[in-house]
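Field reference: sequence -> structure
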Amino acid sequence: MIVALTVITLGAYTRLTNAGLGCPDWPFCYGQVIVPQASYAMAKAAAFKSAQVFEAAKALTEMVHRYMAGVLVLLVVFSTFFVKKIRKQGVDLNLFFPFFLISIIIFQALFGMWTVTWKLLPLVVCAHLLLGAILFCSLVLFRFSLRKNIIPPLPKAWRLAIFIGALLVFLQMLLGGFVSANYAGIACTKFPTCNGSFWPISMETLKALKQLFVYPIGVNYQGGVFPQELRVAIQVVHRLGALCVAFYSIGFASILGFKSLVKDIFWQRMLGTMLFLLGVQVILGIINVVYFLPLFSAVLHNIVAVLLFTTWMLMLSIKEPTK
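Structure field:
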């Protein structure tokens, strides 16, 4: 879990420092296992059809991210074989999570490759980000499934409410991915307004939003390709999503507390953690806008989003024990 969160952190750092194309090929860097010398990279740039100016720091950032991802792959594969071995000894362990994790790892590696070879195509970048969150969440759920104690579930009707909360956070992460992948993080420089207006989106811009789902392959998307108006629209939609998540989460926790349904310490901790992470996430989002996307808070914004989603999924995983 720690390695997975480290990979997510490195991925966010790589994206926010514009190091995603630090190496034009995959899985190597200019055909080398380690970051090459500048003279070698410049000589090989034409062979890899790279118009990027070689920057050793960015190439190193990208390769460290890949190395850590490789370590994570090995750990997941090892854990799968370990679970199978333990099962042969008569220990009842669910094989779903290990093989699900292997599947996610395979797709994550593919999207990592396409992120580079398709030059940061936003849909691929978003998928890569979401798969990272799903991978970390699955690792936490797998570890949580090994617990010995039985946690009393909420009434069945509340499982739907928890599912909706988890879905809202997931969709909000998707919107956040679009903001980051399309370089719309500072399209609005004021809060709570966006450049002096609460709704700075024209009808023409709304009609043009369909462009966000049509991305030609081969274009270099580093720095973004959409006009400022579209980036503003992406940012505003992300803010509206944040508002929905905040109101829903606070309302969910308040109603549970009012009905005295959170008597168990687990639920008290989960709701407390969820509200704390929500508050931190809102503050980080405001800091990102007001202070023009400082690196530390922007990276932390990614991490807290994953932790918030995982918290909702942990609550969703509690159900009546099978008889």
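Note: Residues 56-88 form the longest helix (33 residues).
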